[in-house]
């Protein structure tokens, strides 16, 4: 039990002046006491709290606003400010003790590394041949683990820490990159909040939510401006065929770009297609749905109609192969040891499915250059182009969203210009003459 406390008057400067030198206490509750150490010149604030077994823990935290000193709530405290600071110190100390019960207190770094490892394991299970670090790990390592926020213990994390981290991100980062980093970071913290919930304060989930809130309330980017005209896409595919033949891709590069352009699907979907997903008789491809989202049930594939030209391009990848084999593959190379007359050479090693969108980076630059397109055109422009093409032909927004494995909200937010063009064309057909004809053209009919 805590010892009996003799309380002193500490609430005003005049009351503290009348105290003798030494330490005086006033209870904040049964286990926490605010202290004032009277000195020859002014005094110090301190706090102590009960640890059990007749033991207290004590900490000095600031100067009292005695004499000419003005309270600032940081180094110099009034009585009311001292009470607030004392409560904060005790709360944080108890959180430290709780978080360290079963070992070192988990930090932001621990949360991020555990999340990245879980993502890597999940991606390896989904794509057994995938090598290297996942995109999420690379983003988190670059933008979170290298930042001061990584060193903060989870139980001590505050909303301001997350706000400052977000503000310190490089100004040149694309909005989509920032969004991915923020979403990965938020997911890592939420996962840790669940895993270590017995050692963390209950309000951590609220801190995470508020710390990341209202950062993407700006006007959505108009993605229809990134769409390419059909003529540019045809030039791109011609350039792809040329580079495919020149660099010995054996049709692998052309098939990948052609399927991306024809379906508007994401690389992660197209790379998982199997030989059986090509339905030649129905002139369609069965595109696997994305693994994005949670808690919702959706079909495993999306039926997408494509032209005969695309199907002809895919025939060599289908002929004589089993339905469960990967549809789109590519050669991987290794460096030979070389000889006395010839140095090391890159030679074909193994053949397997495409694993990562970054594998398109180098050939894509060659494609856009050969097609005479701007260097800032990215493979995702093929998806934008497919969505805009279908909207402008008058397909319902809901159908376009379903065919591209996304939501109508996303379509309406980012492709509004294409929707307006399509609706304007449809509404023009409903226009009929309403004004009466001019009198000069009116003729009286005989009765």
UniProtKB/TrEMBL annotation:
Ranges of residues in domain Tyr recombinase: 223-428
Superkingdom in the source lineage: Bacteria
UniProt keywords, alphabetically: DNA recombination
Gene Ontology terms, MF aspect: DNA binding
Keyword Magnesium set for record: no
TM helices/strands, residue ranges: none
InterPro entries recorded: DNA_brk_join_enz, Integrase-like_cat_sf, Integrase_catalytic
GO biological process, one term: DNA recombination
Name listed for the protein in its UniProt record: Integrase
Biased segments, Basic and acidic residues type: 116-125
Chain spans, region Disordered: 116-138
């Amino acid at each position: 039990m805590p010892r009996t406390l003799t309380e002193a008057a500490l609430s005003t400067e005049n009351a503290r002046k009348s105290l003798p030198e030494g330490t005086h206490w006033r209870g904040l509750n049964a286990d926490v006491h605010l202290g004032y150490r009277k000195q020859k010149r002014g005094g110090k604030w301190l706090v102590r709290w009960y640890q059990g077994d007749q033991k207290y823990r004590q900490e000095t935290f600031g100067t009292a606003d005695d004499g000419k000193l003005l309270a600032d709530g940081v180094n110099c405290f009034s009585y009311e400010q001292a009470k607030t600071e004392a409560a904060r110190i005790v709360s944080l100390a108890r959180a430290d003790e709780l978080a360290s019960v079963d070992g070192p207190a988990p930090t932001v770094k621990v949360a991020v590394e555990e999340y990245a490892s879980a993502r890597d394991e999940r991606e390896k299970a989904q794509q057994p041949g995938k090598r290297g670090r996942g995109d999420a790990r690379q983003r988190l390592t670059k933008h979170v683990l290298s930042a001061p926020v990584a060193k903060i213990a989870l139980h001590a994390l505050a909303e301001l820490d997350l706000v400052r981290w977000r503000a310190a991100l490089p100004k040149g980062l694309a909005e989509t990159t920032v969004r991915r980093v923020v979403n990965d970071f938020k997911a890592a913290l939420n996962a840790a909040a669940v895993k270590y919930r017995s050692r963390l304060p209950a309000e951590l989930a609220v801190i995470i939510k508020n710390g990341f809130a209202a950062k993407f309330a700006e006007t959505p980017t108009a993605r229809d401006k990134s769409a390419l005209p059909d003529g540019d896409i045809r030039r791109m595919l011609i350039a792809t065929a040329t580079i495919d033949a020149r660099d010995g891709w054996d049709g692998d590069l052309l098939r990948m770009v052609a399927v991306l352009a024809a379906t508007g699907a994401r690389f992660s979907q197209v790379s998982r297609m199997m030989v059986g997903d090509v339905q030649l008789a129905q002139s369609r491809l069965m595109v696997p749905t994305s693994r994005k989202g949670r808690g919702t049930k959706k079909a495993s594939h999306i039926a997408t109609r494509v032209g005969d030209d695309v199907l002809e391009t895919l025939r060599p990848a289908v002929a004589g192969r089993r339905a469960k084999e990967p549809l789109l593959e590519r050669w991987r190379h290794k460096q030979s040891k070389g000889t006395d007359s010839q140095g090391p050479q890159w030679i074909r090693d193994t053949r397997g499915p495409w694993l990562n969108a970054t594998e398109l980076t180098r050939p894509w630059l060659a494609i856009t250059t050969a097609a005479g397109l701007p260097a800032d055109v990215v493979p995702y422009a093929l998806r934008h182009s497919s969505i805009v093409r279908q909207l402008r032909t008058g397909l319902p927004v809901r159908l376009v969203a379903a065919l591209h494995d996304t939501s109508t909200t996303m379509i309406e937010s980012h492709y509004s210009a294409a929707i307006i063009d399509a609706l304007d064309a449809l509404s023009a057909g409903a226009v009929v003459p309403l004004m009466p004809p001019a009198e000069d053209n009116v003729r009286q009919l005989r009765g």
